[in-house]
Amino acid sequence: MVEANFKTMLFGGDYNPEQWPEEIWLEDMQILKQAAINSATINVFSWALLQPSENEYDFTMLDKIVAILEKNHYQIILATATAALPGWMARRYPDVNRTDFNGQVHKFGVRHNACPNSPTFRKYSPLLANKLAARYGQSKNLVCWHISNEYEGECFCENCAKAFRVWVKAKYQTIEVVNDAWNMNFWGHTLYDWEDIVPPNCLADGFGTDRGVFPGLSIDYKRFMSDSLLQNYRDEKAAIRQFDSKTPITTNMMGTYKGLDYFKWAKELDIISWDNYPDLSTPVSLTAMTHDLMRGLKNGQPFMLMEQTPSQQNAQMYSWLKKPGQMRSLSYQAVAHGADTVQFFQLRRSKGATEKFHGAVIDHSGTTNTRVFRETAQLGHELAALGNTLMGARHHSKVALVFDWENYWALEYSIGPTFLLKYVEQIHQYYAAFYRQNISVDLIPLDADFSKYDLVVAPVLYMVKEGVDEAIRRYVKQGGTFVTTFMSGMVNQSDNIHLGGYPGPLRDILGIWVEEMDALPPEERYPIEFSDQTIAECRMLCSIVHLEGAQVKASYGAGKFYEKTPVVTTHQFGRGQAVYVGSMLVESALDHLVTEWAEMFALEKYDTPKDIEITTRYQENQAYVFVINHTPEVVKVALPFEETLDLLTNEVVLKEIELKPFGVKILQK
Ligand code: GLA
Ligand code: ZN
User: Fold this and answer.
1) In this predicted model, what pLDDT tens digit does every residue of 130-161 receive, in sequence order?
2) Residue range 399-600, CATH number
3) Cis peptide preceding 346, ω within 30 of 0
4) Closest Cα partner for 144 from 340, 379, 385, 349?
5) 195 C-alpha to center of ligand 2: Å?
6) Where are the domains of the chain?
7) Is the bond preceding 503 in cis, omega lying within 30 degrees of 0?
8) Catalytic pick from 150, 154, 375, 382?
9) Active site includes 307?
10) Which of 87, 151, 418, 521 registers the highest number of CB atoms within 10 A of its CB?
11) pLDDT tens digit string along 454-495?
């Protein structure tokens, strides 16, 4: 691993001078400087320009772009350009083109389009990365490599099928074990030959894009696709490292994107980077959670905010404008949660093609006289004044929330007990409950060291693979508090039920047995009552629970045949306790639990009005408290500290502060 050690906070974004005549480049250099922009991400989609034909490489334009950026003292994030195939390659070597879920064989078009198991792609993509590293690897302004772009999607072609068979054979060794893992005697799918294995798209065992007749097979295909694309990344990384051993390498991720197991990927990235595009309806708590997930990928290490729009995102249903101040508040939210860079897509708005209505620092008007430019410049100057004060600062969390891509896949492939279950929503409702009280949470993988935390929450821990229950058992025995919910402990790594009663291997830890689960229609709410008489509601799925040593914390209210039976239980186990939440709780019920946990573990928390966030980063023992108003209103917030210094204004702040619409304060405490 190379340590990403940026000297200053990168403030810049995707820059595509190849789409413009050179006079415009000169203008850009001057205009961007006025916004204190200090870096540019280049070459993201330039493969066709760099390699006009199979045996011809042409770096003339890229040389010029690098030179003008260097001359004007911009730092460079250099992409490897392999995110879109050149036309000649797609035509001459059709194996590079993907076959989609519907079995359609693609032609030259769009981007993020290479078959990951194409021999042609695997030959030419690292070759290009290698040539780029040889040519630019020692450039003095190069600060980061950016491999490909937003790896995504799947391929179901014959090359992928062949590679999948090899992957399956390496994992299971014999076809009998495969039959058993995928439960292939169901519907008479018994396999006799490795060649019988077919990628699960809609021509075979795929059922809609996210359901599967054999989830065990579909989950393995997801694992295989994630690994295949990761191999593409590794190929290019190795090619770069032949000529450049010191510059950090990343690829830009997409938050909770389902297709790739980012915890596995993170091990290959020197620094995490990601693209943040909240929609109009995205709760700020979900954006916060996604930042925390990106920070969690490398165990709390700060990340790059590689992309965000300065104003609007044209691919969303409605290209809403970030309101005055909102781009700034969302940027500081990223920084509050661990971003050490603030970057945009894009620096200059393109004149044609699909993203011409996507926001940019320099608009179609081509001047600095725009609201968006002024707001970008304000932010740029503020970040420049902050220097590296916040860089590398960490978070202190006593609460962890488990996020696990295999569970994400398994839970959503499952047909029944309800189609309403969505993994990210389930994780987010717990995150949001902590967020409402401004309690710091780390997002962690299943194989993390739980012992660092007082409380580990693993909602819908549906798939419990070998060893997972043992890690939880150890953690609780040693004094930890573990919380899980309905639909937990259900299946093994292949989506086969842990027989003998739910929640399978978690049963002794939780001290309960779940006999049945009742699925409710979306609008239905069912009352519950906590042991302290607090009344609340639950929904979606109701577990019918028998106690096996656990205590009742809440029971179902009247109305159903399982009225008065337990819905929330706690179990003393060793020196710790295990909590089971047998249904999806409404906000007030989750708030009730979080309030109790906050007291129990003396968690640092702040009471604030809705959508006013308080998040703290620590530089050694120096605390930086971000107070962010995510609303368009003026809001007053009472803080529990004596005088503090606001780093953005250098003013002393008293206990009660007033925040402007989308206002931000960074208090040094
Ligand atoms: C993604 C891509 C960019 C651009 C933006 C537009 O994040 O990485 O190339 O298409 O979306 O929002
Ligand atoms: Zn393929």
Assistant:
1) 999 999 999 999 999 999 999 999 999 999 99
2) 3.40.50.880
3) yes
4) 340
5) 16
6) 10-156+226-386, 158-220, 399-600, 612-668
7) yes
8) 150
9) yes
10) 151
11) 999 999 999 999 999 999 999 999 999 999 999 999 999 999
